[in-house]
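Q: Structure tokens for this one, please.
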Amino acid sequence: MISEPTADAVRADLDSGDPGATTEAPERWHRTKQRGRAFRAGIARRPTLNFGYRVVVGLIGGMVLLIGIVTIPYPGPGWALVFAGFGILATEFVWAHHTLRWVRGKYRIVMDWYTSRGWTIKVLGAVATFALVVVTLWLLGTYSMVAGWIGVDWPWLRSPLMS
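A: Here is the predicted structure, written as tokens:
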């Protein structure tokens, strides 16, 4: 969820000497937000359309959340996708809003703990992530596929799941 610009941010823009920085930006943001609310209110007035809208939001948010959960252990945007999925769901569902706040709090606690540890914990985390990626690539048959491209047929490269 995007928040409105604060008075300090607007004041800083105005004080920056930028000729493009005017009070129009916050007003434009306010108008855009009002249009979004009017659009959503129009949908909410029609029960069938409202139900369909909520189903679509639920499906899209659920898919983004599921992809995020699957990708958490891997390098990349796993947690960002989890938060994005909950954010999409939170636009329509109160339980998702509460869950998003809870998960975000737990994530901050864990990351504060992790960053406050010494280099040994950080190296162990990197090694565990690397091992997880290597095992996943093996299970998905990536090594045997690439080996086939160059004419190598070693049995230990074959995935037990993809054989």
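A few notes: The mean pLDDT is 83. The longest helix spans residues 47-71.
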